[in-house]
Design goal:
This protein is of the alpha/beta class. The protein has a single domain (7-118), classed as Response regulator (Rossmann fold). 39% of the residues lie in helices and 21% in strands. The protein has helices at 15-27, 38-43, 64-73, 89-97, 110-118, and strands spanning 7-11, 31-35, 50-55, 80-84, 102-105. A 5-stranded parallel beta sheet has the order 2-1-3-4-5, sandwiched between helices.
């Protein structure tokens, strides 16, 4: 990670999407730490200060909401953006209740995601 680039962590079990998001974030001026599961993130979180965490909800093991809940219990104040293909009112309510700053559909325009992250 370079000193002037903010670090974004992404947790998604779709390897192709994870790779694509990493490329987009780097092209958008960020550094990216990529994780294929919530468990992988917890076992080896980013070493440097984290600017934002982008989470998928449905992961192979622990869900993105479970990870968000665990991080909140640990006192984390890192902004969390949920990206999901399974958006509904209950999910939004639970995610926002846990402190999520935004819930985005995975079909969201990538510039919208980048602009949201830049706003933190």
């Amino acid at each position: 990670m370079t000193m002037d680039r903010r670090l974004i962590a992404v947790v998604d079990d779709d390897a192709d999407l994870l790779t694509a998001l990493g490329r987009v974030l780097r092209a958008g001026g960020f550094d990216a730490a990529l994780y294929g599961s919530a468990e992988q993130y917890l076992a080896s979180p980013p070493a440097g200060p984290l600017h934002c965490l982008v989470l998928d909800v449905k992961l192979g093991g622990m869900s993105g909401l479970d990870l968000q809940r665990r991080l909140k219990e640990q006192g984390s104040t890192v902004p969390i953006v949920i990206m999901t293909a399974f958006d509904d009112a209950r999910l939004r309510k639970e995610a926002h209740g846990l402190g999520c700053v935004s819930v985005l559909d995975k079909q969201t325009d990538i510039e919208e995601l980048l602009n949201l992250i830049r706003s933190f």
